[in-house]
Every structure is written in structure tokens, then in C-alpha cells.
Amino acid sequence: MGDQDSGWRQALVDVLAASHLVTGDGLAEILDAALAPLGVGMEIFLVDHEQRALHPVRADAAAAIRIDGTLPGRAYRLNQPLTGLDEHGERLLWVPLLDGVERYGLLRVTLAPGTDADDTALHEDAVRMAALIAHLTSAKTVHSDTLARTRCTRRMSEASELLWQLLPPLTFGCEEMALSALLEPAYEVGGDAFDYAVDDGVVHFSLLDPTGHDLSAGLTAAVTLAAGRCARRDGLDLRAVAARIDAALTAEFADYRFVTGLLARLDLSSGRLRYVNCGHPPPVLLRGGRQVRPLEGGGRPPLGRVAALLPDAAAVDAGEEQLQPGDRLLLYSDGVIEATDREGGEFGVERLVELAERSAAAGLPAPETLRRLSHAVQEHQDGVLRDDATLMLVEWSGRAAQRLVAHPGDLCGTGVDAAGRGRTPR
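The structure corresponding to this sequence follows.
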């Protein structure tokens, strides 16, 4: 056992040493070299932007795996390492790729013959290696078209390409809270955006919906994000942040384009929430897994020139709410609730809240909750969204944050066939 532990430690050191000069498409090769002495094989699977399948970085190494209805997909959905079987009946591990708490995909770990697949120390070693590979994947994606293409199932529009480069990771967690966001249609999103930052015990978060659905909307979102970040980093309060965005949009664009949105701050020690609603649908407060009410305070005009023309209306005081531990805030753009089916029926707030309540009752992590909500919206509209649909879920709970992390001790054994379909749990 001591030799095995030493071998895994050396493999970690070797991967880290090789990572400084490796390109994104070379990550799998440095893994091969580092793990060869252990007789272990690894393949990197990355999740696509629509979060429906996991794709191998080396396309000739394996087939893509569906997230829904497969055991590897379950490992991804629940951030839970799982054991399975390869096409030859040998045991292997599926380990989540988490950079911090951002879900990048899975690491398939093929074990040496005779290895005890249920060995706790082995699981811990595999989770540590997966964490390193996830971090390297995040860092190398910035300059690797191979890694970027692996996550795309079709061409991304110029507006979407612009927006994805501006946004923070979809998921964040710290000891006191969990936050996750999701944008659809992933390859054609026009202007919807989100932002967040956490410092000095306060989480700042926002959800934005510019007018339009083209590259122009993406440029509007870019100016809004930049102005908001500058104002936030200057230490301005929420009203002043909104005013700074008004001024930036007015100075940059001569027309009357505008941005609806919600700007909010949550004190992580007290649970005190303050927010300004700029013509946006009100967020929903969930407590104990059930809706309490929409938060309808802090209203002012949308961001932009129109607000500058209505200074009295724009000077509204921020809304305020005292959260309780475990509370969830569900934010959404109008593209979510206004998605229509073939008969013209809207998805609606009630349906959205009902699905969010079910996810809370099932104890699902925040990113998995949003993945399911987003897919439900798309299915309601036959898979073709006619407007950007953006969701954000903020949960003030240390337990929620822990659900974002892969814990080796949670690993359980389940058979899986060569196609990745789960069998009866052991």
C-alpha cells in the first residue's frame, strides 16, 4: 500500500511538472506518461455546453456518454465518484472533474488488473488527480481550441463567443453559500449575462438581460458588465453601481437600448440581502424547499439612457430581505417564463417554481437543479428557444456548498456496461 501511495504522489508531481509547458491537447499524454508506472489509464471527458453529454478529449479513445440515464452521467450530476465496469468487465472509476466547484466533466480511471477498486486510499488518490486535471483544463482552455471544440456540439455564434469569454465560471461555492448560473441557448445566446464576486464576507451577484438578440446585444452586455465591475470595485453601493452603468451605456450608445437586471449583495455572516431591480422579473425566495414569495422591492427603471431621463425613479432605495440558513434565491430572465409550446402556452413562473421545489426536495446540488430546469424550459419549446433563457440559484447554506464538492468517502460501487448504462447497485 505504501508503494502505491508513493506512486500516486509521484504521478501528481510528474503531471504538475509537465503542465507548465504542455498545450491543452497534450493533457492526456502527460497523464499517460505519469500513470504508466502504476498500470493505470485515464481518459478526460468534458461536458458540452448544453450539459447533455460527456465527450472524450481524445475522440478516438471512446464514445460520447449521455448524462441522463447512465452511471457516468450520475457521477457527473451528483458530483459523486462511482465505480463501474469497462467493456471487458474490469472495474474502473468515474471521478468528477471539478475546478474548485465548477463542473468540467469526468475522469475515467482504468485500474491495473487485480487492483482493489473499493480501496479508500485509491479513491482519494484518484479524486486528487481529477482536481489537478480539472484545474489544468480550466487554465489551458483559454488558449486551446481543441479543448474548446470538445465542449461544442455545433458552431457557436459570434455573440455567444463574446459573452462566454466575459462570464465567470457557472458555479461558485464557499463555506457559507453556493451559487450557480446557466445560459441557453448555449451556442446562440445573444445578450443575457450574469456576474458575481465574493470578498470580505459579502457576495455580489447580478443577472442581466439587454435588449436584442444579436452581437449588438452582446456588446451592450459587455459594457454593462465592465461598468458594473468597475463600480463594484470602487466600493460603490447598489444604487451608485446602477447609476454608473446608466452613465456608461448612455455614453457608449446613442440609441435608447436598455438592460433589465437584478443587482444584489448578500452578507454571508448575517444573511442580510439588499437588491435593486432594474425592470427585471422579481427573484423567488425558497425556504425549506418551498416558495415563500417573490421579492418585489427595490424597483427602478431599466439600466441605460431611459433611467438617466428619470432620475427620481432611478433613485429608489434598495430592497432588503433577511434570509434564513438554507434559503434559496431563484433568479431568471423573461426568456425562461415566456418560453411557449406549440399551443402558445407559456412555461410560466408557477411551473418554474414547482420544478425548483422538486429539486430542493431531492437535495440536488445547485448546478444540477439549474441543468434540469433549463432542459425543462427547452423541452417546453421543442428544443428551440426564441429568446435567451438565463437562470441563477443562490443558496445561503454551508451544506449546499458541500454538495458541490466530490468526497472520496461517498464513492459507491455500481456495475456499468460498455455503453455506460448503469446496472443494479451492489
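Confidence is low (pLDDT under 50) at residues 411-426.
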